[in-house]
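sanity check both lines:
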Amino acid sequence: MSDGTHIMFAGGGAAGHLFPGLAVAEHFRRLSPEVRISFAGPGKAREKHTIRTAGYEHTTIPAQPLPQNPLQAFRFVTDNVAGYCAARWMLREQQVSFVVGLGGFTSTAVVRAAAARGVPFVLLEQNAIPSQTTRWLSRASSLVCAAFEEVRPHLHVQASVAVTGNPSRPAFEQLYHRKQGTAREGAMKLGGHQPRQKRLVILGGAGGARSLNESMPGVLKQLRNCLADWHIVHQTGEGQLQETESRYQRSGVDALAVTFIDEIASLLFESDLVVCRSGGTTLAELALAGVPAVLVPYPDAADDHQLANAKVFTAAGASRLIDESSQSGALETALARELTPLLVEDSQRIEMSHHMQSLARPDAAAEIAGVIQERLYGVQSSRAAA
């Protein structure tokens, strides 16, 4: 039975925005099962399905990202004005008590409407360089929950900031804690894991990670002599499977290409190396899995925030970094150069794995849920207080 409190998680449009919100919502539901929780987003079919499958309501708010050309400018203005007006009406009509801004262009409309209507809100900032919405509204927010310490210089001096880490999907949290328990048991028994084939995972995509789909088959063709003990799994993203499979067939490399990896947590916890972009949520989940990575930041990310994320992890010794935008030669050449020693030298990967796991924040979602509860009711959960 609801106590009249309604929390709305606003944002999405990308998995990196949606999944942290779902993780926090799940923890908050355990703390306060009587509270109504809903999501507002751009209305993509896959996103709505994910939210409703998790048991939450979804409201579509019209919004558009910054225009890439003059033809998009008119729709950018009209949709975002409409989204802001719709958000103001929705907050009043649905009696929203608290807003959690997840990032993404829909988040901007809802959070700005919350600020205008006096509805308290917190902002989740997944990246080392904060979004424009986080910068604009950090002072008005109850709290900015940041994944990286590096965000502080970019925010208003009076903004309230807590470096909580990035919330990860429950499957990653569960496997992390299980792995820690297994490691302790193994140390007590002086035992170890059974040997298995090494696994390389490539996280490509139909949008920002398309260049990985295009480059990796050629890269692995160059490195075939290093792949005898490796199993290769390549996520292509929607609409990219057939082309990627054809590239692997032409290269003579045996790889399993799939559109999406449903059990991504289980796969990464049993992997030895990943090639991927460097969104904040992806990096948080790699840290929980303790799997080293070759990071290729998306070169068109706003304010180069993916490059900033990757620099933090690379400086910690958890990854190798390829700046695609500054390559004087082909991306394939740089990938082959970075991958070669990691494919053949176990000691390098093991050391990187230790550094990667040192960056893990397994309780980020629980901590943020506790913060929301404290802001709503003036009480702090036992987990958040620990």
